[in-house]
Amino acid sequence: MIVLHTFGKQHDMIDPSPFVAKAHTLLRFAGLPYEAIPADVRKAPRGKLPVLIDDGETIADSTFIRFHLEKKYGLDFDAGLDARERAIAWSVEKMLENHLVWIWTHERWTLPDEYANGPANYFKGVPKLARPVVELYMSRKLARMRDAQGVSRYSDAERDELSKRGLESIAIILGDKPFLMGDAPCGADATLFAFMNVLLCPPFKAPSVLLARGHGNIVAYSARLAAQYFPDYQQKRA
Ligand SMILES: N[C@@H](CCC(=O)N[C@@H](CS)C(=O)NCC(=O)O)C(=O)O
């Protein structure tokens, strides 16, 4: 029995955490049945979600979830890719997870409309009296993380420039292929699809969202994979 600990669906995002959405996507690419359960992030082994529980074994971190699935179920998410293609796919994945994610997180937590449509909802399950304290604690924690990473030290124009360059690179690599590296999904497609699912969610309008919407192939890719792998989370997106 496979159980995925998540934050839980929000708007029509598979999960507000792109890393959780990535873990969902890996499981669906693998065709493995699983149950998704909203969990308390404070109890997670690394203090972060996703966490996978597989027959009593606990795996924290989306990339280690991927490695676990590959080892335990004899899979290779990059099957069919040569060494250079695997290297490109891995680089795109890590650009999204360790670089672009910070710009997009910064926008979502600092632009008032984005915050109201996104992070403000994360605290609705917290008892009313404790809610402002928890919200303030999390906002400050995220602000410290963005400061340590450096993203909050850039100007808006600098962040936009980096986001634009990253999205253009992805759009060029994707081209008119059905998946990032060809006709079949690879490991990095789980990341790309998940991050686009979270970024392109309709209520959001941050500069990076508009930049991503300007790439027709990325928008089409996101809609196509949602229909193919998440019919139960069916998106209604322009
Ligand atoms: N490297 C981790 C990143 C996971 C991650 O950053 N999760 C965030 C949500 S997007 C989280 O749980 N944050 C809670 C916290 O830092 O308190 C992975 O790939 O799973």
- Backbone CA Rg: 17 Å
Sheet with the most strands, sense and barrel status:
4 strands, mixed
Strands, total number: 4
* Principal-axes shape call: globular
Series of H and E elements: EHEEEHHHHHHHH
CATH class placement of the largest domain = Mainly Alpha
Mean pLDDT: 96
Derived structural class: alpha+beta
User: How many domain modules?
Assistant: 2
List the helices and strands and how they pair.
Blueprint: E1 2-6, H1 18-30, E2 35-38, E3 51-54, E4 57-60, H2 62-72, H3 83-110, H4 112-117, H5 131-149, H6 156-174, H7 187-199, H8 207-213, H9 216-229
Parallel strand pairs: 1-2
Antiparallel strand pairs: 1-3, 3-4
The structure holds glutathione.
What this model shows, in words?
- The protein is 55% helix and 7% strand.
- By secondary structure, it is an alpha+beta fold.
- It folds into two domains: 2-72, 3-Layer(aba) Sandwich (Glutaredoxin); 83-231, Glutathione S-transferase Yfyf (Class Pi), Chain A, domain 2, CATH 1.20.1050.
- It has a four-stranded mixed β-sheet, covered by helices on one side.
- Helix 3 runs antiparallel to helix 6 (156-174), helix 3 (83-110) packs parallel to helix 7 (187-199) and helix 7 crosses helix 9 (216-229).
- The chain is globular, with a radius of gyration of 17 Å.
- Bound molecules: glutathione.
- Glutathione is lined by residues 17, 19, 41, 47-50, 61-63.
